[in-house]
Amino acid sequence: MIIGAQLYTVRDFAKNLTDFEETLKKIADLGCKTVQVSGTCEYEAEWLNEKLKENGLACVLTHIKASDILENTEKVCRDHGIFGCSNIGLGAVPGGKLNDEIYEKFKADFMPAIEKINKAGYRFFYHNHAFEFSKSADGKRFFEKMLEDFPAEKMSITFDTYWAQFAGADPAKALLSLKGRAQCVHLKDMTVWERNENRMAPVGHGNMDFEAILAAAEQVEAEYLLVEQDNCYGEDPFVCLKKSFDYLKSLGMKF
Q1: Among 68, 70, 79, 97, which residue's CB has the most CB atoms within a 10 Å radius?
Q2: pTM
């Protein structure tokens, strides 16, 4: 398993191409060699390919707009081929919430696009938040329905440890249900702040059992462990990434 950086963590430093280029250099200076491109400014595939190579980085996953996945599937695949990424990701169900009607629409809309992505030789990834763990009218959690309706050969899961814990699930146990489809995992820690507020924290600096999570990730044959912290609460996001990297390296993980 390889440690990488989810660039959504440093999205505020990638709002234009000049800053994005500098951010890639800073990520590389941390010793990182693997990134997920998400939350950045718009870019041309050729530009990204050039800048990744200049900094010795590989993009192993993206988050792409739902509209592009649905309406420009072939271009999305071509672009990923240009910058050498075989994993095409969606950050959430459009609208960021789920009920039975929304879920059925998601399934109907995305299945044809996913099949095109698979046929072109790419893997499609869906990233969970907490709302996928809510229950549908038939009593099943939407997360379970997704796993049933989208088999592993069609859809992988970018498993987010924080949001699973936030939803009340045991992240290690939930991860164990994803063998063969959790090639990319978002490592994100949770701590408790004033008045019982849950906050995100650098990995190893919160309350989550990452030794169990990493053991589960190894068991399901995860390939990339992408460190993410959506909110750094005023602390430098690059410093937060370094704290996470240092903790993971102390456990024997490598870039």
Answers
A1: 79
A2: 0.96
Q: 5: which strand partners?
A: 35, 227
155-160 and 123-127 as β-strands: parallel, antiparallel, unpaired? Answer: parallel
Q: Which amino acid is at 134?
A: S
Tokens of 155: 């859809």
pLDDT in tens, 94-146: 999 999 999 999 999 999 999 999 999 999 999 999 999 999 999 999 999 99
Q: How many CB atoms lie within 10 A of CB 200?
A: 21
CB-CB contact of 238 with 255 (8 Å):
no
Structure tokens at 228: 């993410």
For the chain, first and last CA: distance in Å? 9
Q: At what angle do helices 237-250 and 17-29 cross, to 10 degrees?
A: 30
C-alpha R_g of the chain:
17
| Count of CA atoms in the C-beta half-sphere (13 A) of 67 | 1
Task: Give me the DSSP letters along 142-172.
Answer: HHHHHHHHS-TTTEEEEEEHHHHHHTT--HH
Residue type, 237: P
Between CA 211 and CA 143 the distance in angstroms is 24
User: What's the rounded Cα separation, in Å, for the pair 184 and 130?
Assistant: 18
Whole-angstrom distance, CA of residue 50 vs CA of residue 71: 26
